[in-house]
Amino acid sequence: MLPTLQRSKIDELDAITINGADYRATVLLQGAQLIHFSTKYDSDNWLWVSEKAEYNKGDSVRGGVPICWPVFGQFDANPQAVKDSFTDCRFDLTQHGFARNQIFNIDLFNPLHVDQRLQHFSSLTLSLPNLEDFHPKLGLQVKFLFSAHGFNISLITCNLSEETVNFSQALHTYLPTDDIEQTTIRGFDQVTYSDTLDNWATKTQQGEVTFSEGVDRIYHAAPTLVIGSPGLSPLHLASKGSNSTVVWNPWYTKAHEISQFAADDYKKMLCVETANAHLDYITLSAGESHELVLEVTKIPF
């Protein structure tokens, strides 16, 4: 039986759920935000969503995979080249851009897609409608692939203007853990990173990433990663078109400052963000496109 697409509403937001024989995925049309993925072999959500999450129009939901585009982080913290590209933009770019608050269109649902490895997927393609007031003129398409083995998200940016555009971006993935203090990330050994909590100091990772305090780092590489947490199967993350990876946990010291976030939520989550952030921004000439890809599985690559 082929996978099916079902429309629903979660409070104020329209959602799409794809039900396959071996997997289930839910995407919000606001922000093209994946909020649930599970398989018949592992029925718990592979993504973390706060129990305090609010499904309101105009507000990004705390959890899943929000899309940060066409800027990542605080607008003023971006390099001057990025800020100069959006001088005349009328949309609010203050924090993580505006794509996460926009309603996407459904372009295509293909219940049976076969990739080069002969694996079977369902594919869902969403796009940001033309925005008359958006300058510079960019196109954004989000493509999802879902299977019994995991999921892929592709963020495709097209420069439709006649000028060069510099932009930053991220797939701001929230992942679950049973105990943040026992959680590790393998793959960053000897990678240079910017520590935003230490005045943006440049440091080099030694061994695995562990958590005993707040973490907000931009690693200037995008290696294949393994996320380990007691009681949970390891998650394997791979990327393409990414020059940086952001690792974030607010700890108890900042948990109270975050919307849709309980005081002890920091114990249950971490963010590992596939990105082109800070100095790793993307430059697109007129007519060019760029694809940022995240692949998540519980089977080693």
UniProtKB/TrEMBL annotation:
EC class of the enzyme, as a word: isomerase
UniProt GO BP: carbohydrate metabolic process
Isomerase recorded as keyword: yes
Catalytic reaction annotation: alpha-D-glucose 6-phosphate = beta-D-glucose 6-phosphate
Keywords assigned by UniProt, alphabetized: Isomerase
EC number(s) recorded for this UniProt protein: 5.1.3.15
Residues annotated as catalytic: H172, E273
CDD domains linked: D-hex-6-P-epi_like (cd09020)
Sites where the protein binds substrate: R62, Q95, R100
Protein family according to the UniProt entry: Belongs to the glucose-6-phosphate 1-epimerase family.
Stored PANTHER family: APOSPORY-ASSOCIATED PROTEIN C-RELATED (PTHR11122), GLUCOSE-6-PHOSPHATE 1-EPIMERASE (PTHR11122:SF13)
Name the record gives this protein: Putative glucose-6-phosphate 1-epimerase
Native organism: Psychrobacter phenylpyruvicus
Gene encoding the protein: yeaD
